Amino acid sequence: MLEIRFLPFLLLFTCAIIIERPISQIAWCGASIIYTREDETIPQFQGLEEEKTIFFITEAHHIYQSNGTVWNQIEGLFEDIQISPADSRVIFLFGQNGQKSYRTNDCGENFEEIDTDGFYGFRLNKMSWKWMLAFKKQQCDHFYMDCREPYNNQLFYSEDGAKTWLPSFKNCRDASWDKIIEDITVPDERSIVLFSYENQTQLIYSDDFTNYHTLMIGAQGYYQTTKYLFILTSSSNGGYELHYGHSKLEEFQEKLVELPLQILKEYSYTVLDTENGRIYLSVSHYQQEQSITNVYISNQIGQDFQIVLTNNVRSTQDGNCDFEKLLGLTSTYVANTYDQRDQKDKSTIISFNGGKKWEQIKAPKYDSEGNIIECGGECSLHFVGRTESYRQTIYTVDQAPGIVLGVGNVGLFIAQEQNTYMSADGGQNWVEVRKGSHVFEIADFGGVIVMAKDFEPTNEIIYSIDYGKTWKTKIIYDDLFMAQNLVTEASGTVRYFLIYGKTDKGEGIILKLDFSDIFSRECKSNLDYDIWNSKCIDGSQTKYYRKKENSQCFNPKQMITKKIIEPCPCKREDWICASGYASLLEGGDCLPIVNISDYCEPGKTFFKTQGYIKLTQCLGGLDLGPIETQCPKSFNLNEILLYIIVIGFLIVVILIGYVAIRRVLTSEEKNPNINKYNQMEFQEDDDEEDQQL
């Protein structure tokens, strides 16, 4: 069943489609950006056209295809849709339980049947749509230990986009394409495989699906980023150990993650992020309470882990943690933690400097109805995390730096009653947009923000075209429905949204909201743009070009988010204690703890340390760097001889003078009258003068 309605509502043109069951997945063919299931963001070299072909799959396993306002159902039952990360115009439709599967290389104009019978766990290659990995279950003898669960899978690969398959390694637990195959020195077909051989688990990599190089014996799992390869192994004390090394596999040299709390076991690891070379790890030290973790951060070369957060909230179902990076910004994170006292209540905190310092989120003073928000105690803003929500409730996109949306509450802890909040300055200040929970989406590089209620039936949306300063309400449908999600194409360059949900009859509904007529022009002049400054982070500040709130124009579709990175004036936090110095208090003076000797070449200057090393790229401000100091002057042999001669000469002169003076004094003692006569003579003269006066 497919019913289409065209509903013009003032500035918005709405197209509604009613289907037999709600939608479970949407894919944008020809998208400008692909977000893979391996957490990669891959730009495409096509896809800037306004209209995108949309595929969606329903809970009844039917797939529909749309180009503009024409919707077609594809025959068959399906369980998954995947877009090729190598070419977003290539879509794979995987059939359910032996049903036919298809591939289209032109966004649905033509389809070709592919072979997926008995295969599962498809891995698409980001360099070529032709390369694929998949698994098949092995039939194994009960006593064959290498084929035990979960290693009873055989790996296959395809070189022609899943038309045919060739066998590779047996007894596999997991496999993936190398994440740095875009490196010109890495073969496009390089795979990483975790399998069992001779009753030993091994992590290997192969460039031809047959021959391989062993990375580690005893591996239990692995995770690769573009910077690091992480490998999990069992430890001798009953927990686990995490090893890591360079992501370029030829250069991989295993190192053990060494945490400062060595007395505690590690029972689970979650790699949260690897920004700027720093490794963010969530680690559970409690076997019975693996939902409570500590967060550790390394330095910029992946070493020297320090604990920065305790009692972080973790899901025991999938290992996800309430720890979110705000996209588009540098080193800004939001996390949820359990209350230290009962480890039941949860609260939300934010870090603007990469996790080194955490603080409460500043609550707005007024609610969305203009009332003062009253709350006893130290109230702050809290957000529901991904561990207890079916969708991400803190939402940001790379293309709109500083715009943050979230569902939460003001109080001491996370509460059941939720409202919707927004920040336009990267989480520094917040406003309550509306009461209740909403779904939301951002387009036009932040120039258009749309929301809809998801906690009760609705037929309207609210939207803002001035970064949340004002909001307008529009009716989009003539009946009420429950909104499940609101989406747009990943690049944010299209000017329409899709909102989907279900009717009161349990049917699925999807509506296309076209915003292309709200402005009549594209922004062209610098007068349309302003500069928004982020906080100083790690000694530098990023300045972003952003459309002015009152500019009535669309951002150009080919726009690249422009930014300027400038150094900030140095503060005490930009300096750490140098080797041989330590601070008794955090942020206190660095004092010597050992004898510090400075090499000084006589006659020249040297830079004498003040006990600090600059940690960031800050400039000016507080200067605790080395001070140029003059070295004591040294003397060579010739200079020493010259000084001795001069000093000797002076001594001789002094002695001669001394002898001469002694002789004079001796002669005076032998003829005392002469001296007295002369003195009296002067006195007599003086007396005469006095008398004359």
Describe the structure.
The chain is mainly β and 693 residues long. Helices cover 8% and strands 40% of the residues. The protein is built from 2 helices and 53 strands. The strands form 15 sheets. The protein has a 5-stranded antiparallel sheet with strand order 1-2-44-43-42, with no helix packed on it. Strands 33, 34, 35, 36 and 37 form a 5-stranded antiparallel sheet that branches. Strand 23 and strand 24 form a beta hairpin. The longest helix is centred in the C-terminal third of the chain and has 34 residues, at 637-670. The protein starts with a strand and ends with a helix. 36% of the residues are buried. Residues 673-693 have low confidence and may be disordered.
Straight-line distance between termini: 142 Å
Main beta-sheet annotation: 5 strands, antiparallel
Q: How much strand content do the residues show?
A: 35-45%
**Overall 3D geometry?**
globular
- Which residue ranges are poorly predicted, with pLDDT under 50 across at least 5 consecutive positions? 673-693
> What is the share of helical residues?
under 10%
Structure annotation, total helices = 2
Quick synopsis:
The protein has 693 residues and is mainly beta. Helix content is 8%, strand content 40%.
What is the topology?
Elements: E1 2-9, E2 12-19, E3 23-29, E4 33-35, E5 41-43, E6 53-58, E7 63-67, E8 70-74, E9 78-83, E10 91-95, E11 101-104, E12 112-114, E13 120-124, E14 132-137, E15 153-158, E16 166-167, E17 172-177, E18 191-197, E19 200-206, E20 213-217, E21 219-224, E22 228-234, E23 240-246, E24 255-256, E25 268-273, E26 280-284, E27 292-297, E28 306-313, E29 323-325, E30 333-338, E31 346-351, E32 359-360, E33 380-383, E34 394-395, E35 404-411, E36 419-423, E37 431-435, E38 438-443, E39 448-453, E40 460-464, E41 472-475, E42 482-487, E43 496-502, E44 508-514, E45 529-533, E46 540-547, E47 563-567, E48 575-577, E49 581-583, E50 590-592, E51 605-608, E52 612-614, E53 627-630, H1 637-670, H2 672-692
Antiparallel strand pairs: 1-2, 2-44, 3-6, 4-5, 6-7, 7-8, 9-10, 10-11, 11-12, 13-14, 14-15, 15-16, 17-18, 18-19, 19-20, 21-22, 22-23, 23-24, 25-26, 26-27, 27-28, 29-30, 30-31, 31-32, 33-35, 34-35, 35-36, 36-37, 38-39, 39-40, 40-41, 42-43, 43-44, 45-46, 46-47, 48-52, 49-50, 51-53
Transmembrane segments: 640-661
Organism: Paramecium primaurelia
Protein name: VPS10 domain-containing protein
